[in-house]
C-alpha cells in the first residue's frame, strides 16, 4: 500500500529527531493499523464537519491545530482565535522575522531617504552612474517588498493564530495596495504592520481610518495629490465603492465629488511642516508619514449622502467616515464579503443579514461579526465546499506537507502565487483579488495548480534552500501521507481520488495527485 | 460603400493573395498549407482601466480640447514635427505614439475608429462597467455565468463556421462565461508540458463527473497543444532576425494559434488608469499605446494570409474626463473610442454617430457622451462577419438593435 511509503521514506531522510518521531508515530498509528484507526483511543475521532470547519477558520490543517481543536472544542477554539494575544510563532520563525530589515523600518525616515535619493538621481547626468544608482534604489525597494511578503507568508504558514492571519490577508486584499505604484514598495511592510494587523478584529471604522492615514494608501490612490482647486477623486470613489458601501451602496457621482473635497489636504508628509498662517497651522495634523495640510483643504460646506459634514479640517474626514460606515449598506457589504471569503461564493442571505445586524448593533465590531459567522447554524449544518484561492492553496499545501517544520526559503511560494495570478501586493487595480471559484478555477489555472502540486510533491521545490542562494543543507521531502492525513483527510476522501492515489508509481506521484485532487482543492 | 472603396478593397485583397501565395511556396514552410481555409476570426482586446481615448483619437479641431488640457494635450498636426498629432480627417487626429503601427494600418484602410462608443452604465466604476460590458446582457440583467463571447461561441457551435475559442489570459474572462468551457492560457511564458500522458489521464479521471472536469481536461490538453505549436514555430522562425519580447512576443504567439486553430480570441491589457501624470505625445499613456500598437502589428503579421479573415476589436470600459485633473492626469469618464482592425475591413475611416466636440456637448459637463452603444456595434459586426440571423444576433446581444457600420 502506497500510503505506507512515507513512513519508510521519512526514516530514510530522517536528518532530524523530529522526522524520526513523526515516522515512529506513523508506524504506531496510521499505517501499522491499516490507516483507519486515527489517533489514540482516548481522543475522539475528528468528524467530517469538524475538519471542514477547521479548514475554514485556518489556512489549512496541521497537527498542532487539530490537537488544539480536540482539546478545546469548537467554541473555545474560536474564542482563542479571536483573541490571539500570546499565540506566538515558533521561536525559529520568530527569530527569522525579527532579523528582517522590514521589521525595523521607520516609514517617515525611509520615505525621506528614498525621495532624497530620487532627487539626487534626477540631478545626475545621463550615464552609467545614474543607471546604476537607479537600479540600486529599485533593488532596495523590491527587497523590502519581498521581505514584507516573506514575513507575511511565514506567519500564514506557522502562526497558531490562524484566523488572525487569514484576516490580515482578507483586509489587505480588501484595502488593496499595489507595490508598483510610487513608493508603495517601501511602505507595504509598515502598511500591514500598523494599518491592518492591529485592527483585524477591531472596529471597522478604525480600520478605515488607519488605511486612510497610511501613506501607502494615499500614494496608491493618489489622494496625496488631492487639493482644493486640484481635485483628484480616485480615492474618494474607491473608498465608497470598494472599501465601505459597494457600488450599489446608494451614493451618487455628486457624493464622490463631495467626498473628494472632504479629503483634500489628506496626504503624505515629506519631512517638512508646510508654512501656514497661524489660524490654519492650528488645524495641521501630522503623524509619522501621514499629514493633513489645511493649506490644501477645501473649507467649503459639504453634504455627503444627504447629511451635512460637520467639523473643520480633518474633523470633516472623521465625520464623513462615520456617516459612511454607519450606513446599513456598509454593514451588509462588509458582512457579505466576509461570508464570501469564509462561507460560500453565494452566501445565504439570512446569514448576511444576521452578520449585518451584529455589525450595526456593535458599532462594526469585526470579532463579533466573525463570531456570528462561525457559530451560525448555517455553518453547523455544513455550508458546502469552498474552492481555495491560490493563497489558501499554496499555504495549506505547505502546512500539510511540512506540518510545522520551518522552511527556509519563501521564493518558491512567492513564485507560485505569481504564476497563479495572486501575487501579494501585486494587484494593480484597487478591487483586490476575487473571492470566487470562477476566477481561480479556469482550465489554465487548474493546470498550473497541478504543476505546483508536482513541485511540492516531488520535494525539490527549493523550500529548504538558504535564501542567500548558497548550497542547501537540509533535504525537504514532504510527508504528505502522514498521521494528519489518516486522521483528518483519508476517512473523507472521494472514491475517485483514492483510485488515483492507488495508481501512483512513487511517493512523489502520490503527493502530486493528492495535492491536485478535488478534495484538496476545496476546503 | 462607394465604388472606389470597393475597387480599392478588391485590389488590396488581390495583392495580399499574391503575397500569400509567394510566401507559401513549397519548401519555405509546410505549416501554411496546414492552416484551415477561410472562416472569420475575431480577437477582442480589452484595455482594462479605462484608457484615455481623447489622447489616442484627438479632436484637434476643437479649441476646447487645448483649453481643457493645458498640460497633456497633444499638439495639432504639423508636418514639420514628429510630436504632433497625425491628421486623419478634418476633425480627428491620431496619437503619434502609434504612427508607425496603427497609423500605418489606418493608411492601408485596415483600421477604423468609433468615437463616442461605450455603454449605458453610468457608475464610472472600472469593475462594474467591465463586468457589464463582458456580460453584454440587456439592461437590468446581471447573470455572471454568461458573457457575450461565450454566447457567440455557443451560437456558432451548431453552424458551418463553428469556432474554437480561447482566452490568452491567466484567468478566464467573464466575457467567455457560458455553457461550454473555453480554455485559457497566458502566452507570456510557454514551457514544456509537465505531465506525461498517463499522469494527465489520472489527473483528469480524478475530476471525472466533477464540475471542474472539463476545465481540468481541456487545460491539460491545451498545454500539450500549445507547447507543440510554439516549439514547431520557434524552430521554424529562428531565421527571423527580429527577436520579439513582452507583449509583442505574446501577440506573435496569439497570431500563430489563431492562424492554425482558434477563431475567437480574447486578451486583456492593463495599465490605463492614468489619474496622475499621463503625459502627452510622450509619457506613460504614449508608452502603453506604443507597445499595444506594436503588438497588434506583430499579431497581424503572424496571422499571414489569415489576416484578411481577421477582425480585431479594441475596447475599454469607459473614456476619461475631457478636462485634465489636478495631477496632470484624467479621472473616470464615460464615452470612449473603439478600434476595429483587420486585413480586409473597410477601414481608414472614423465611423458611427458623432457630434461636435465642445464644452456644451460634454456629457454631464465632464466627459464624452455615448452615441454608439457597444452592443449594437458589436452585434452588427458579428452579424456581418458570420452571417448571423436575427435570432442568433439576439442570442449574443439580447434586446439590442444591431447597427451595421459596413466594416465587413
Oligomer: heterodimer
How many beta-strand elements of chain B? 11
Q: In percent terms, what proportion of residues of chain B is strand?
A: 5-15%
- Estimate what percentage of residues of chain A fall within beta strands: under 5%
CATH architecture assignment of chain B: 3-Layer(aba) Sandwich
Put the structure in a nutshell.
By secondary structure, chain A is an all-alpha fold. Chain A has 26 helices and 5 strands.
Structure description:
The complex is a heterodimer of chains A (523) and B (408). Chain A is mainly α and 523 residues long. Chain A has 3 domains: 2-60 and 387-521, no CATH class; 93-325, no CATH class; 328-380. Chain A is built from 26 helices and 5 strands. Chain A has helices at residues 5-13, 17-28, 48-57, 63-82, 91-98, 107-123, 128-158, 162-174, 184-196, 204-212, 215-220, 234-244, 253-262, 278-281, 314-325, 328-342, 349-361, 366-374, 377-380, 390-402, 411-420, 443-458, 483-489, 495-502, 507-516, 518-521, and strands at 266-268, 285-287, 290-292, 303-304, 307-308. In chain A, helix 6 (107-123) runs antiparallel to helix 7 (128-158) and helix 17 packs antiparallel against helix 18. The model of chain A is unreliable at 1-42 (pLDDT under 50). In chain B, strands 1, 5, 6, 7, 8, 9, 10 and 11 form an 8-stranded mixed beta sheet that branches. In chain B, helix 6 runs antiparallel to helix 12 (390-396), helix 9 (246-260) runs parallel beside helix 10 (284-302) and helix 11 crosses helix 12 (390-396). Chain B is globular. The termini of chain B are close together. In chain B, 52% of the residues are buried. The model of chain B is unreliable at 1-37 and 237-243 (pLDDT under 50).
Amino acid at each position: 500500500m502506497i500510503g505506507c511509503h512515507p513512513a519508510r521514506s521519512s526514516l530514510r531522510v530522517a536528518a532530524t529527531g523530529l522526522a524520526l518521531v513523526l515516522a515512529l508515530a506513523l508506524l504506531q498509528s496510521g499505517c501499522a493499523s491499516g490507516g483507519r484507526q486515527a489517533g489514540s483511543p482516548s481522543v475522539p475521532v475528528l468528524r467530517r464537519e469538524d475538519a471542514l470547519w477547521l479548514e475554514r477558520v485556518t489556512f489549512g490543517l496541521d497537527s498542532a491545530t487539530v490537537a488544539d481543536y480536540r482539546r478545546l472544542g469548537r467554541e473555545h477554539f474560536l474564542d482563542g482565535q479571536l483573541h490571539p494575544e500570546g499565540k506566538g510563532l515558533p521561536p525559529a520563525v520568530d527569530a527569522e522575522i525579527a532579523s528582517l530589515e522590514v521589521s525595523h523600518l521607520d516609514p517617515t525616515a525611509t520615505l525621506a531617504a528614498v525621495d532624497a535619493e530620487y532627487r539626487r538621481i534626477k540631478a545626475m547626468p545621463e550615464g552609467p552612474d545614474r543607471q546604476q544608482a537607479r537600479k540600486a534604489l529599485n533593488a532596495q525597494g523590491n527587497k523590502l517588498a519581498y521581505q514584507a511578503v516573506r514575513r507575511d507568508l511565514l506567519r500564514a504558514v506557522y502562526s497558531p493564530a490562524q484566523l488572525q492571519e487569514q484576516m490580515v490577508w482578507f483586509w489587505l486584499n480588501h484595502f488593496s495596495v499595489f507595490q508598483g505604484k510610487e513608493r508603495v514598495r517601501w511602505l507595504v511592510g509598515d502598511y500591514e504592520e500598523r494599518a491592518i494587523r492591529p485592527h483585524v478584529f477591531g472596529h471597522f471604522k478604525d480600520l478605515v481610518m488607519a488605511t486612510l492615514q497610511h501613506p501607502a494608501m494615499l500614494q496608491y490612490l493618489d489622494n496625496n495629490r488631492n487639493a482644493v482647486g486640484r481635485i483628484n477623486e480616485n480615492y474618494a470613489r474607491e473608498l465608497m465603492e470598494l472599501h465601505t458601501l459597494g457600488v450599489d451602496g446608494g451614493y451618487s457621482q455628486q457624493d464622490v465629488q463631495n467626498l473628494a473635497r472632504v479629503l483634500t489636504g489628506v496626504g503624505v508628509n515629506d519631512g517638512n511642516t508646510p508654512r501656514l498662517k497661524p489660524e490654519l497651522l492650528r488645524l495641521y495634523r501630522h503623524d509619522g508619514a501621514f499629514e493633513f495640510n489645511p493649506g490644501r483643504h477645501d473649507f467649503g460646506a459639504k453634504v455627503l449622502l444627504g447629511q451635512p459634514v460637520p467639523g473643520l479640517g480633518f474633523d470633516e474626514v472623521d465625520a464623513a467616515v462615520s456617516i459612511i460606515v454607519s450606513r446599513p449598506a456598509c454593514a451588509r457589504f462588509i458582512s457579505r464579503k466576509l461570508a464570501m471569503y469564509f462561507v460560500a461564493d453565494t452566501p445565504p442571505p439570512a446569514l448576511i443579514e444576521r452578520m449585518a445586524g451584529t455589525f450595526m448593533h456593535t458599532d462594526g465590531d469585526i470579532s463579533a461579526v466573525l463570531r456570528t459567522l462561525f457559530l451560525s447554524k448555517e455553518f453547523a449544518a455544513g455550508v458546502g465546499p469552498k474552492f481555495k484561492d491560490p493563497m489558501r492553496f499554496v499555504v495549506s499545501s505547505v502546512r500539510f506537507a511540512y506540518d510545522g517544520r520551518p522552511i527556509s526559503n519563501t521564493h518558491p511560494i512567492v513564485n507560485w502565487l505569481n504564476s497563479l495570478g495572486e501575487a501579494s501586493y501585486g494587484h494593480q487595480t484597487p478591487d483586490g483579488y476575487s473571492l470566487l471559484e470562477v476566477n481561480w478555477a479556469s482550465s489554465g489555472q487548474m493546470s498550473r495548480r497541478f504543476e505546483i502540486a508536482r513541485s511540492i510533491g516531488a520535494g525539490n521545490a527549493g523550500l529548504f534552500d538558504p535564501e542567500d542562494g548558497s548550497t542547501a543543507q537540509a533535504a525537504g521531502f514532504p510527508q504528505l501521507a502522514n498521521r494528519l492525513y489518516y486522521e483528518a483527510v483519508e476517512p473523507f476522501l472521494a472514491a475517485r481520488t483514492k483510485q488515483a492515489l492507488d495508481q501512483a508509481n512513487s511517493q512523489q506521484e502520490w503527493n502530486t495527485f493528492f495535492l491536485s485532487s478535488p478534495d484538496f482543492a476545496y476546503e | 460603400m462607394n465604388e472606389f472603396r470597393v475597387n480599392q478593397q478588391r485590389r488590396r485583397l488581390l495583392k495580399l493573395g499574391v503575397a500569400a501565395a509567394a510566401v507559401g511556396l513549397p519548401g519555405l514552410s509546410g505549416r501554411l498549407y496546414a492552416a484551415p481555409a477561410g472562416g472569420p476570426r475575431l480577437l477582442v482586446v480589452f484595455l482594462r482601466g479605462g484608457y484615455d481615448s481623447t489622447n489616442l483619437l484627438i479632436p484637434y479641431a476643437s479649441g476646447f480640447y487645448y483649453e481643457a488640457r493645458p498640460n497633456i494635450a497633444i499638439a495639432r498636426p504639423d508636418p514639420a514635427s514628429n510630436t504632433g498629432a497625425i491628421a486623419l480627417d478634418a476633425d480627428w487626429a491620431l496619437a503619434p505614439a502609434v504612427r508607425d503601427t496603427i497609423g500605418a494600418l489606418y493608411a492601408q484602410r485596415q483600421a477604423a475608429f468609433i468615437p463616442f462608443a461605450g455603454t449605458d452604465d453610468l457608475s464610472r466604476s472600472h469593475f462594474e462597467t467591465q463586468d457589464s460590458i463582458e456580460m453584454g446582457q440587456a439592461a437590468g440583467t446581471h447573470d455572471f455565468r454568461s458573457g457575450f463571447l461565450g454566447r457567440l461561441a455557443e451560437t456558432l457551435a451548431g453552424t458551418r463556421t463553428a469556432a474554437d475559442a480561447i482566452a490568452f489570459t491567466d484567468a478566464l474572462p467573464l466575457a467567455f462565461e457560458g455553457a461550454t468551457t473555453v480554455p485559457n492560457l497566458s502566452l507570456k511564458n510557454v514551457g514544456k508540458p509537465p505531465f506525461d500522458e498517463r499522469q494527465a489521464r489520472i489527473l483528469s479521471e480524478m475530476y471525472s463527473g466533477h464540475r471542474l472536469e472539463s476545465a481540468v481536461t481541456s487545460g491539460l490538453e491545451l498545454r500539450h497543444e500549445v507547447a507543440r505549436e510554439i516549439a514547431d514555430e520557434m524552430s521554424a522562425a529562428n531565421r527571423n532576425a527580429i527577436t520579439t519580447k513582452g507583449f509583442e512576443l505574446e501577440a506573435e504567439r496569439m497570431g500563430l494559434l489563431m492562424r492554425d486553430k482558434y477563431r475567437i480570441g480574447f486578451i486583456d491589457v492593463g495599465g490605463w488608469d492614468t489619474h496622475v501624470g499621463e503625459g502627452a505625445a510622450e509619457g506613460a499613456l504614449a508608452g502603453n499605446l506604443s507597445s499595444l500598437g506594436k503588438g497588434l502589428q506583430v499579431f497581424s503579421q503572424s496571422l499571414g494570409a489569415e489576416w484578411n479573415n481577421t477582425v480585431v476589436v479594441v475596447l475599454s470600459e469607459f473614456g476619461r474626463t475631457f478636462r485634465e485633473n489636478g495631477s496632470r492626469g484624467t479621472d473616470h469618464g464615460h464615452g470612449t473610442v473603439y478600434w476595429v482592425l483587420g486585413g480586409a475591413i473597410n477601414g481608414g475611416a472614423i465611423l458611427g454617430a458623432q457630434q461636435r466636440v465642445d464644452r456644451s456637448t460634454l456629457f454631464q459637463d465632464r466627459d464624452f457622451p455615448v452615441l454608439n452603444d457597444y452592443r449594437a456595434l458589436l452585434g452588427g459586426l458579428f452579424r456581418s462577419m458570420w452571417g448571423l440571423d436575427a435570432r442568433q444576433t439576439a442570442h449574443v446581444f439580447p434586446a439590442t438593435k444591431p447597427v451595421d457600420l459596413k466594416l465587413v
